């Protein structure tokens, strides 16, 4: 890497990284999106198209997209094509995994790596699962894989993109994180920090929370009431009512966060004793709340802290001059033009 650095799109890199990571964790399959040639993978593009089409359903009258679906035109036709392609990809992964497990059992071989798909299939074969038919079982596995890949891909990549943009544009934030790392991490030529060490980085955790407050990966949620209920505000709602709320707006509301609600201030998350302040999930709604709290919350924090600390320690990031940073109108808070940064090797 030259002294002037190289120019990269961090958002694209994070999207490729998280897709590789979640596919390997869930399916035991590495699509190699992050390989050096940056391949354009059809199943990743199909997922992007489905995401775009789902957002389209949120912004047009229901009758419009249902008519398009019936006629198979416009966004609904694109959604059908992408859905069919992605379904085939997931069912192929499930079929290959079943064959691999059967082959390994016949040869009495141990699984080389753990993945959730293997665990579910083995549980089913041992009689511990609820699925008794192959078609029904494959449908369950497909739904599980689709949900987990969707939850683990774009949300983490979005969170990392906005956080590293804040680091690149706030030199004081970068300096404080580096100082904390020097004080709490074992620093040598081979960086191999474990979670016990990473958990000591209180300021890094606080900075990520503050970034997620201002730039939640899911900027709005669309719910539907089954029966009559009363909102926490006291407002009654009837059955079959559509409810829209915005974590993005809530994170920028003075009545919730105080007069400095628009200020990027990691210190609001740190107590006088230097510990992370507990903020109720109904206030910091990024990971949802109550029984529907995100199952991957802890894993998301772990992944973000490991990736962010490794990048910040090794590289200096600066946003390319005149690069526009604007949110994309989508169900996930991406940057419309990506995040172009100049990367230089950090000289400690």
From TrEMBL:
BP terms from Gene Ontology: lipid metabolic process
Binding site for heme: 294
Domain of life: Eukaryota
Alphabetical UniProt keywords: Heme, Iron, Metal-binding, Monooxygenase, Oxidoreductase
Recorded GO MF terms: heme binding; iron ion binding; monooxygenase activity; oxidoreductase activity, acting on paired donors, with incorporation or reduction of molecular oxygen
Cofactors that this protein relies on: heme
SUPFAM superfamilies in the cross-refs: Cytochrome P450
InterPro entries: Cyt_P450 (IPR001128), Cyt_P450_CS (IPR017972), Cyt_P450_E_grp-I (IPR002401), Cyt_P450_sf (IPR036396)
Record family assignment: Belongs to the cytochrome P450 family.
Protein name: Cytochrome P450
Lineage: Eukaryota, Viridiplantae, Streptophyta, Embryophyta, Tracheophyta
């Amino acid at each position: 890497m030259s002294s002037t650095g190289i120019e990269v799109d961090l958002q694209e890199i994070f999207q490729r990284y998280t897709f590789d990571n979640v596919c390997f964790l869930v399916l035991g399959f590495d699509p190699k999106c992050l390989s050096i040639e940056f391949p354009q993978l059809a199943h990743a593009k199909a997922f992007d198209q489905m995401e775009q089409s789902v957002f389209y359903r949120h912004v047009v009258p229901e009758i419009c997209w249902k008519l398009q679906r019936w006629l198979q035109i416009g966004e609904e036709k694109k959604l059908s094509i992408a859905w069919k392609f992605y379904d085939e990809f997931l069912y192929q992964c499930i079929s290959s995994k079943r064959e691999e497990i059967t082959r390994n059992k016949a040869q009495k071989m141990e699984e080389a790596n753990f993945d959730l798909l293997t665990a579910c299939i083995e549980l089913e074969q041992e009689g511990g699962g609820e699925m008794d038919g192959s078609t029904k079982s494959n449908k369950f596995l497909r739904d599980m894989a689709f949900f987990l890949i969707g939850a683990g891909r774009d949300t983490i990549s979005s969170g990392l993109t906005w956080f590293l943009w804040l680091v690149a544009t706030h030199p004081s934030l970068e300096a404080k994180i580096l100082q904390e790392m020097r004080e709490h991490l074992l620093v040598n030529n081979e960086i191999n920090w474990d979670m016990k060490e990473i958990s000591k980085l209180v300021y890094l955790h606080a900075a990520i929370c503050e970034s997620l407050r201002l730039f939640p990966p899911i900027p709005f949620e669309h719910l539907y009431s089954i029966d009559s209920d009363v909102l926490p505000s006291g407002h009654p709602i009837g059955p079959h009512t559509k409810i829209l709320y915005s974590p993005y707006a809530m994170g920028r509301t003075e009545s919730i966060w105080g007069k400095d609600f628009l200020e990027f201030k990691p210190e609001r998350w740190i107590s006088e004793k230097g510990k992370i302040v507990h903020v109720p999930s109904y206030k910091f709604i990024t990971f949802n709340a109550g029984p529907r709290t995100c199952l991957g919350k802890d894993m998301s924090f772990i992944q973000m802290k490991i990736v962010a600390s490794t990048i910040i320690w090794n590289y200096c990031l600066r946003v390319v001059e005149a690069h526009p940073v604007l949110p994309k109108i989508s169900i996930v808070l991406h940057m419309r033009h990506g995040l172009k940064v100049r990367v230089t090797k950090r000289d400690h």
